[in-house]
Amino acid sequence: MKVALGMIIRNLLSSAELIAFIDNAEKHGHELDCVIAAYSQKLDPKVAETLCKRIPFHAIDIKNPDYCKENLRRIGVSEKTAQTLLECPVDPMGGPVPYGYKRTLLTTEAILRGMDVLFFVDSDVHPAVLKMTQDGAVTEDADFFGAHLSHLNSGSLVTTGEYSGYNILPPASFDGMDDLLYGLQKEDMLEYWQNSEKHRCLYTQPAATEPKPCTKILGGNCAITLSAFSALPPFFSSFYRVGGELFLNRGEDTVLGLGIAKTGTVCTDVGLNPLHDTYKNYPAEPDLRGSAEDQERFYYACTGWVGRNPLYNYVRGGDLQAIRESRRERLGPGLRALAQYTNNERYLGVLENFDVSWSNLDRYIEEYERVMEAWEDFIGRSEHK
User: Is residue 384 scored above 70 in pLDDT?
Assistant: First the structure.
C-alpha cells in the first residue's frame, strides 16, 4: 500500500510543518511513500531541497500544475476535463484560492502518482494531542498515522477525527447567540457555545475513546483510500465577492461527507484528536472582545459559513426559499447582538454576504455539476490507465 501525505499551504517557506509529520511517521514505524504540498504563492527552493533529502517530495504550483497537466493528457482525459480540474477559478496571486479546488488538485496528483492512500493534514494541525492534567492541558506525542492506518487496513475507506485545541467558536456569552448560530446554520453548537464560560471552548483528547462509524469528515485530519473515489465526489467549494473582496466558502469536506453518507462508504472516526492551532497563537485563549486578530478570524469563519450554506442545502435537498428566509430572519438580530458584544460593527456586513452568496447559488450549482462531471471522467480513465 503506497501512502502519501498531503498538505495545502499558501507560501511554502518552511519545512517545519511537514517535517513534524514525517518525523512522527518514522518515530512510530510507518513508511510514507511521498509527500505532496500544494502552494499558491511562494516556494522556497531550499525548503524543497530539505524535504527531498528526507523523502520523495512533490510540490504543486497551483498556478501551473505541470505534472497533472502532462499526466491527464497521457491517460486521455478531455481538454474540458483537464481545464475544469486544473484551472484555478480565481487569480491565485490576487488573494485566497477556494479550498475545494486545492484539495481536489492535490488528490488528483496523488492518484496520478499511483498512491493508494492520501493523508490530508492542514498546516495548522500538529501530530500531537492535548491532554487534560491536574496542571492544565499539556501536549503529548501521538501515533497519528497508526491511528488511521489500523482502520484503513481493516476495511475502512475513509478515516477522520476531531481536533484538540480551541474550537472556531471562541468563548462568549451574550443574548442572541441562538439567533446567530441559527442564521449561520450552526445551531447544533448552541448548547456547547452557551456553556463556553465553563469549558472555554478548549477540546482535549479524551482519556478513553472508542472508534465509531461517522459521515462527518474534517479535511485537515483525514485519510482516504483513493479507490473510494470511484463512488465518491471530490472535495468542492466555491467563492463569492462583496464590495470587491473575495470570500471563500467553507465546507469542501462537508460536500464529501454528504457523498460518504449517500453511498454508504465505510468511514471511521478513529478517536485521535490532533492539535489544531485554530487561532494560530496556541496556547493563548481566543479573546473575541479584546483581540482584533481573533475577531477577524471569527468574522471570516462567519462569512465562510454563509457562503457554504446555499450549495450545502441544495445538495441536501429541501425547500431552498424557506430555508433562506428562515435563516436570514434570525441572522440579522444575531449579527447585531454579536456586533454589540464585540463593539465591532464589521459583523453587521455578514448579512450582505449572506444575500450575495445566495444570489450566487446558480453559479455554485453550475460549477459543482461541472466538477462532478469532470471528476467522473478522470476517475474512470485513471482506473484503466
Answer: no
